Amino acid sequence: VQLQASGGGLVQAGDSLTLSCVASGFAFSSYYMGWFRQAPGQEQEYVSSIDKNGGDPDYADYAKGRFTISRDNAKNTVYLRITDLTPEDTAVYFCTADSDRYYWDDYWGQGTQVTVSS
């Protein structure tokens, strides 16, 4: 099983990014997909999730309005679009797959670093 996240990098405040996470080794379309993030010195926090068919997106309160989750089951890929980035968005972003969209304890990727400079 692999969840390979990419698309992070060093960006300026106000920029936009699209993170991608390619899954392999399991039945991607049978799992809910989610994104979490961990900022330096902080605990990991939930960002967003999406149902198996690409509907019913859910966002943490801080993510509403600037974050958009989507998925392409034909490509085994989940995306996270972030607009109007701020330094507070600096974190490692992880994608995860889960069968019940609650515990998020099935599969995790290695994360991609997003660094936002002011």
Characterization of this structure:
- The mean pLDDT is 97.
- The termini are far apart.
- The strands form two sheets. Strands 2, 4, 5, 6, 9, 10 and 11 form a seven-stranded mixed β-sheet that branches.
- A hairpin with an 8-residue loop joins β9 (91-98) and β10.
- The protein has 118 residues and is mainly beta.
- The chain is 0% helix and 51% strand.
- It contains no helices and eleven strands.
Oligomer state equals: single chain
Percent in helix: under 10%
Distance between the termini: 37 Å
Rg result: 13 Å
Tally of strands: 11
Secondary-structure element order, N to C: EEEEEEEEEEE
Q: Find the structural class using helix and strand composition.
A: mainly beta
Task: Name the beta content range.
Answer: over 45%
Largest sheet, in brief, is:
7 strands, mixed
Please count the helical segments.
0
Assign an overall shape: globular
Record keyword descriptors for this entry.
single chain; 118 residues; mainly beta; seven-stranded mixed sheet; globular
Topology overview:
Blueprint: E1 2-6, E2 9-12, E3 17-24, E4 32-38, E5 45-50, E6 58-59, E7 67-72, E8 77-82, E9 91-98, E10 107-108, E11 112-117
Parallel strand pairs: 2-11
Antiparallel strand pairs: 1-3, 3-8, 4-5, 4-9, 5-6, 7-8, 9-10, 9-11
How would you summarize what this structure contains?
Helix content is 0%, strand content 51%. It is built from no helices and eleven strands.
